[in-house]
Amino acid sequence: MNGKSEIAERYSGLYKENIDKISGISSPYINSFREAAFEKFRELGIPTKKNEAYKYTNLNIFFDHDYKSYFMPVTSDFVKAEEFRCDVADLDTHGIVLLNGFYPTINEKLRQLPTGVWIGSLNEAAVRFADKIEKHYGKYAKTETDGLIHLNTAMASDGVFIYVPEGVTLTKPVQIVNLVQSDEDMFNQHRNLIIVEKNAEFSLIICDHTLSPQKFLTNAVTEIFVGENAHFDIIRVQNEHNAACKITHTFIHQERNSVASSNNMTLHGGLIRNSTYHYLGGEGAESYSYGLFLADKWQHIDNFVNVEHAFPHCTSNQLFKGVLDDMSTGAFNGRILVRPDAQGTLAYQKNNNILLTDDAKMDTKPQLEIYADDVKCSHGATVGQLDGDALFYLQSRGINKREARLMLMFGFAHEVIQNIKIEALRERMDNLVMQRLKGELSRCASCMVKCG
Amino acid sequence: MLIINNLKASIEGKNILKGITLEVKPGEIHAIMGPNGSGKSTLAAVLAGREFVEVTEGIVTYFGKNLLEMAAEDRAKEGIFLGFQYPIEIPGVSMVNFMKTAVNEHRKHKGLDPLSASDFLKMMREKKEMVEIDSKLANRSVNEGFSGGEKKKNEIFQMAMLEPKLAILDETDSGLDIDALRIVANGVNKLKRPDNSFIVITHYQRLLDYIIPDVVHVLYDGRIVKTAGKELALELEEKGYDWIKKEVENNIIA
User: Fold this and answer.
1) Which residues of B touch A (CB under 8 A)?
2) Any bridge partners for residue A209, and if so which?
3) What is the pLDDT of residues A11-43, one digit of tens each?
4) What is the arrangement of strands in the sheet containing B215-220, beginning at the earlier edge strand?
């Protein structure tokens, strides 16, 4: 038996042992996907480097490990989680805390905000809003190659549900804080579904935190529907310790004339893989995909982006940057697919990386598949050191070399950060990145884990 | 103030400066003219402390100190300013942050406390008005997306902020239309004091209609081949550089 099937067998065992427990707390509709998804997972397995989309990322060290899986939090844990407060000054949000992938049991499992927006537990929504779930759940997270998405469909039991009705503008963002905290090594999976109806406007912030130093693996799927002429932004802030692995799959489905942006800010984490799928599913849709990561020590950060132009006159723009220190490694894989009908497509991609040491390593791979004629596409990737001319320019004004390097790195990062529209969050990101670049710890004040 | 004695320098093994001797006294404006490739920008680069230029011989003293041993940032803090021929674009670094850092480094060097945010903004406002630059430029990233003229005006603005003792303007006039040229020249004239000096490097006489030099040098093939008063600039404009080249060649033959 080779290593790969051994790992797959372990997850098969886990599935069989736990499926009754998982199904017991989930809705019949969500359960109806599980068996087929599990079969698909058994067929595809955990992605290895042979999978083109995972070519530069070795997941085995996190999957080949005995986790005390499916820890179901108890009320007292949720009380602690509820007490968690995001310390970003002036950041006014509607907050949700997920503890180890589960929605709190202590308060209302679904609540309605003044504008008619619903936020709460996916499980609960599957019962209360069966029509909406049946219309959207499992419709966007589609893959023929990534077994992890099927593993999530097979085994995830809860997550966040958000429903923004037609024409509603929610001025205050919703903030989901994903807390991972346990006395034991833990593998958790959760599933979010966000529905933004026609002409609505909505921003979502997702913060990933680890609150205890155990080994953690998270495999999360988020499906997002952005209706016609709707505006949607998602900003993900990741601050996890070095023994944590976070794998996120975000699917953004856009209808005509909608505008959506995604911004992955990875400040800290042992192994992080963010896959972002943008589907431009109607004429005139615009999508923006941003990402910034700072890595050091043995950290590995992998961003995978898939932009699919399926209709005419859509615009997409990707900007991803990385700063790599010590012996850290990173990967960027940006795919642009332009379908034959997608005439008048504009699609741009930029990936720039700075290596601060000789041992740091970055792999970057653009992948353009264009089947339409009237298309403007550009892509560019750089991996290099700081610009010597720019460094001298700053020094020639009296700024010492260390400070000048810091300013350049900050400026490099700020080009991504400046796309965050929420001012308080943008300022916090600037500060956290500056601290991190200075070699200070960039954790949020409420974080107890010394990430080192 | 500045004494350059038999300065020789090379870039990647190629000799560019072949023995330059020059003295600049407080309050003077020196123009350095010369055809392309004569070594004008290399001289500016050596004075500002660019590391890719290798000084092979000679001495440069600045207020009695060995300039060549000083790091670029220390030269700046001691009052040397280089106006770049091609100012660098730095995306993501705001002009405000850039200038605040630079001004406070200069203040620290002089033993002064950093400026408060309001005092700094007031200073920015005054200097912007003084050098007539669009106040919006200062809210953007350093030189990013600036036109050629805006970049050059921004150099003059930075000079106004840092109040150097010795400003070296490397072809600040090239590529400028007449309005931009006037703004650049006015900036220099307003900043001129009896105790500070300028080295104006230019290919064209035009700038010297607005900035009146005390001394004009002609640099050719890495050497200063002629030094005279401001009338030399006019002569060069009229006759071009060919007669200088001929004179130099005749001298070598003779």
Assistant:
1) 48-51, 71-73, 75-77, 81-82, 84, 87-88, 90-93, 97-98, 101-102, 105-106, 109, 141-142, 158, 162
2) A179, A239
3) 888 888 888 888 888 889 999 999 999 999 999
4) B80-83, B166-170, B197-202, B29-33, B215-220, B223-228
Which one of A323, A387, A389, A397 makes the best mutation probe of the B interface by having the most chain B beta carbons within 10 Å? Answer: A397
Tens digit of pLDDT for each residue in A267-304? 989 999 999 999 999 999 999 999 999 999 999 999 99
Are the beta carbons of A267 and A442 closer than 8 angstroms?
A: yes
Residue B127's alpha-carbon distances to A42, A140, B189, B191, B201, in angstroms, are: 69, 56, 14, 10, 23
User: CA-CA distance, A306 to A163, in Å (whole number)?
Assistant: 25
Domain count, chain B: 1
- What is the model's pLDDT at position A441? 61
- Strand B14-24 and strand B2-11: pairing? antiparallel
CATH number at residue B69: 3.40.50.300
Looking at this predicted complex, what is its ipTM? Answer: 0.94
First-last CA distance in chain B:
35
Distance CA A404, CA B110 (A): 20
The whole-angstrom separation of Cα B109 and Cα B124 is 20
Cα-atom radius of gyration of chain B, to the nearest Å? Answer: 18
Q: Which member of B77, B93, B105 has the closest CB to residue A411?
A: B93
Residue from A307, A311, A378 nearest A343 by CA: A311
Written as one letter, the residue type at B19 is G
Return the DSSP state at A102. B
Enter the tokens of residue A122: 């996916």
Q: Under DSSP, is residue A141 helix (H, G, I), strand (E, B) or coil? A: coil
CA distance B18 to chain A (A): 25
> Which residues constitute the domain of residue B51?
2-253
Rounded CA-CA distance B30/A175 in Å is: 62
Pick from B144, B134, B157, B117: nearest CA to A418: B144
The whole-angstrom separation of Cα A232 and Cα A198 is 11
Residue whose pair of structure tokens reads 């004695």 in the numeric block? B5
Give ∠ CA B177-B147-A382 in degrees, rounded to 5: 145
Q: CA–CA distance from A213 to each of A316, A397, B7 (Å)?
A: 39, 45, 61
A437, exposed or middle or buried, with CB in 10 Å at 0-12, 13-18, 19+? buried
Distance, CA of B233 to CA of B32 (rounded, Å)? 10
For residues A451 and A268, is the Cβ–Cβ distance under 8 A?
yes
pLDDT at A442: 55
Concatenate the DSSP letters of all residues of A318-358 into one string.
EEEEEEE-TT-EEEEEEEEEE-TT-TTEEEEEEEEEEE-SS
